[in-house]
Amino acid sequence: MRPVRAAALILLFYLIQTCVMPYLKVGGVMPNLLMVVIAILTVSYGKKYAFVSGALVGIILESMASSLRLFYVLVYPSLALVAAQAFADMSDVKREMRRISRADSQPESATGANKTLWQRVRAIRLTRTSPDDLNPHLRILLNALLLTASYEVLMLVYVALDGVPVGFGHIWRVLITLAYTGFAALLVMLPARAFLGMYRRRSRSARDGRLDEIHSVPEDVLLDMAVVADMPDDMALTRAALRGKDRTDAIMDGEPPETAVENAEIAPLEPQENPPDPQGEEETKHDGHDGQNEPG
């Protein structure tokens, strides 16, 4: 389904570029909607679609306007692939590497208050080190501007090599083209991404059905799914201790709690000696004293 939507979007933008935009010129220039659609597909679907969309646009332009042989077939996919390295979603490996690098640099940032001004200046990096991607709409705008600026620079180089002097008028037209293309990208990116299926949401009935399914799970299944084992209560621990075996040991060995209490060995009670009676000792002492006082 994605290739069909991408091809339909490219064809739609090509028709708008060739049939509608000539009537909406500003300062004698019109925006480059083909670069805009390449930017949208790059951010929405990734690097592979960036190259394929650039190649498809180049083939269409080469077949319709062959003034420069093989120029569009080479330029459009090359620019799309180069720009995709910066604006497409980063891979999982790259994201994980950035997370590890940020985690390693946190202890160093904690001691940043003790750094000198020169050390802080040297620590500034122009490249992003965050593991999170930029906002997709911002990336589409920046990608479209970069693609358009690169294409216009190549055209200026071609004009200069052809012997035409490049003046302020050419540069002014390039600036107007960039501004107009950025404005067009802001207008069309939301409906284009909606057409590509980037704003899908589950219906209310589907969410309610999912909640009902979660609540209908039996309690014993939820206990089996639990990571933390059930903790025995105080009464069960006391009974297990009196039987000579700690219930928690049996539970750790994988034995069910009820079986652990039943199978616990009963420890024999050691016989205790009868404590001496203090009253008996006193009577014995008194009898001894009385016997010694009696005359022989």
Concise synopsis of the structure shown:
Helix content is 68%, strand content 0%. The model is unreliable at 291-296 (pLDDT under 50). The protein folds into three domains: 2-89 and 133-195, Arp2/3 complex 21 kDa subunit ARPC3 (Orthogonal Bundle); 94-132, no CATH class; 217-262, no CATH class.
Helix and strand sequence: HHHHHHHHHHHHHH
Radius of gyration: 41 Å
Distance between the termini: 127 Å
CATH class term of the largest domain? Mainly Alpha
Strand content: under 5%
Low-confidence region ranges:
291-296
Shape: elongated
Total helices: the number is: 14
The count of strands amounts to: 0
Question: Given the helix and strand composition, which structural class is it?
Answer: mainly alpha
pLDDT averaged residue by residue = 75
Q: Assign the CATH architecture of the largest domain.
A: Orthogonal Bundle
The tally of structural domains comes to: 3
Do you know the CATH topology of the largest domain? Arp2/3 complex 21 kDa subunit ARPC3
Estimate percent helicity. Answer: 55-70%
Largest sheet: none
Please describe what this structure looks like.
- With 296 residues, the protein is mostly helical.
- It has three domains: 2-89 and 133-195, Arp2/3 complex 21 kDa subunit ARPC3 (Orthogonal Bundle); 94-132, no CATH class; 217-262, no CATH class.
- Helices cover 68% and strands 0% of the residues.
- It is built from 14 helices and no strands.
- Helix 3 (47-64) runs antiparallel to helix 4.
- It is elongated, with a radius of gyration of 41 Å.
- The chain starts with a helix and ends with a helix.
